[in-house]
Amino acid sequence: MPDQSDMTPEPSSQTTETQPAPKADAPAPGSSDTNSSTTESPSKPDDGSLLNPKVDEAKPDGEQTDGAEPEGEPPANAAMFGAPAEDAEYELSGLPEGMTIDVAALAAVTPLARELNLSNEGLSKLAGVYTESVLPSVQQQMTDDLASRAAQVSKDWATDARASVVGGTNAAGEPVEADQIYAGRSLAEVQQVSAKALDRLGGEGFREFLDQHGLGNHPQMLRFAFAVGNAIGEDTSFERGGGTPAAPLTREEKYYGKPA
């Protein structure tokens, strides 16, 4: 029979090693330490988008990279610019027929034309537009203003002349007394005597001239005409009418009348 002592199991030759206890702050096995490492984010492109990033490639020779317009055909108005040399004068061309260049006006506008870098063609075009479109309007406005002022002046003269005959207030609002030369006559009487002188010495043409320019209303013109009309007096048979001077009466005709 086999000996039972031989049946006793022998202790295992393998020794169980004791694993050290994990530290309290140590990460669990298999987990990543988010505190000990920094997560790198993808860099943001300088321009464009993720699907269309900016590509910084070398530009071909001659290509503009500073935002300037590429070289090409000159602009349509290129001939309008480029001032003449400092020692050269502007030469205008293409002006309306009959238009002459005002030398003084050209000299006055030259500094501005050079500042704007206008060429001869550019200044000529500007002068043409001014001559055809602006100048006529300016001239018409000046003519209207002068006519309006002349009409007002003539009206003021008439007020002054009326006041000098019958007294009253002149155009300036000042009180005046009647001129003694009129000897208290009415305005209508003074006009009649003055008209006789004008017809005798000047005729209808002269009267129309005075009326056209407003000079017939001037106080001194009225005074002069009245004085001349008085000088003609009653010693002639002159009567207003056709404007033809009558022959002066002889001495006999003055005393005895003209023969029938």
Which characteristics define this entry?
6 helices; 260 residues; mainly alpha
Report on the structure:
By secondary structure, this protein is mostly helical. Among the domains are: 81-152, no CATH class; 179-256, no CATH class. It is built from six helices and two strands. The protein has helices at 103-115, 120-166, 187-201, 203-213, 219-232, 251-256; strands spanning 168-169, 175-176. Strands 1-2 form a two-stranded antiparallel sheet. A hairpin with a 5-residue loop joins strand 1 (168-169) and strand 2 (175-176). Helix 2 crosses helix 5. The chain starts with 102 loop residues before the first helix and ends with a helix.
Strand content: under 5%
- Protein structure class: mainly alpha
Q: Specify the overall morphology.
A: elongated
Biggest β-sheet: count, sense, barrel? Answer: 2 strands, antiparallel
Report the average pLDDT across residues: 76
Report how far apart the termini are. 216 Å
Question: Which blocks of ≥5 consecutive residues have pLDDT under 50?
Answer: 12-17, 31-38, 241-245
Placed side by side, the strands forming the largest sheet appear as 1-2
> Given the structure, what is the number of helices?
6
Helix content: 40-55%
Q: How much is the radius of gyration in Å?
A: 57 Å
Total strands: the figure is 2
* Helix-strand topology string: HHEEHHHH
Topology:
Blueprint: H1 103-115, H2 120-166, E1 168-169, E2 175-176, H3 187-201, H4 203-213, H5 219-232, H6 251-256
Antiparallel strand pairs: 1-2
